[in-house]
Amino acid sequence: MTTWNRAFLSAFVGLLLTATTLHSAPQPGFRLAAQTEHFSFYVKGKEKVSPEKSERFLAKVEGLLGAKVEGHGAYYRHADAQAVEYSTGMYRDGATNLSTGEIHSTKDYHPHEIVHFALSQIGSPGLFFHEGLAVMIAEKGKLRGKKVDTIAKRFAGNVPFSTFVDAFASLDPNVSYAVAASFTKLLIERHGMARVVEFVRSCDGAEKDRDMEFARVFGQSLAQAGNDWAAQLSGHDKGTQVAADLGTARDSSASRRIAELQHVVAGATAKERMSSGLVH
Fold first, then answer.
1. 83 is in which domain, residue-wise?
2. Burial letters for 67-83: b for 16+ Cβ neighbours within 10 Å, e otherwise?
3. pTM of the model
């Protein structure tokens, strides 16, 4: 869900330049266990994979998004999070490279990462929107059994919305993922999934283009939409100016909560982690 640092990504891309093709060579030590229309499943030992289940879920994702996924990606099944870290540089149960569509997971079937794979074939709106959609689709709008709105409400209006969008990779994922999903939920409720997918498809990874396309597709700036989201979640009227669309915190409470959220990985700035293209 977070990003590789550039050193790991550089080495990885160099080794796996053809990872999205059907006949790509696997990473050292892995063997092909199964292959479907969209995935090549690789294992090292006796780890199980669920090819049919994964394809069925991807078909559901295609139906929800109203978009056909044409690409093919490698799915590496690992024994544990330490093994994922060895391959990606991150101690996680799952991670997907948005450039190649390659999945690394400790699970035989990993819906969250499959959503990332699908979205990687459609557009590049940034980590905030990727994770928001993944949580809404794969986790059905819940994290650790709690509704994302419940988790996000504490921070709505108290932390600048731009902090969540632009510094997403440097924040505590226990909160940032909930905020991203809560905001995405509001977009879907107000505009429909088709409009959200139109926005995703129009993005190529550039922040300036993302903001321009957001305004074109949804009829308001990202900052304005963030302000509306924070106002609705925190119980303010839409016309009330809250901290959601401000570039800096307005009071010490906001400053404390930003500090609370910041969780920068040693050796990698937020920009570096955002640009590497790996999510989990």
1. 6-120
2. bebeebbbbbbbeeeeb
3. 0.79
